[in-house]
Design goal:
39% strand, mainly beta, single chain
Length: 62
Amino acid sequence: MSLHKIFKPTQKVDMQFRTEAFNIFNHTQYSGLNSPVGTDYFMRANGAHEARVIQLALKVVF
């Protein structure tokens, strides 16, 4: 999910403020089922991706 807003502090300068969020609903996303056949942990998830990540950015164009 991404949101952005453009501001014009002067006639020649534009500023863009951007917010991006990954895994915004914070649901578990498993990274792999690479367990060998015939083991006790066959078809079990062996990891998960990162939880919610949010980043902010400010871009100035002149």
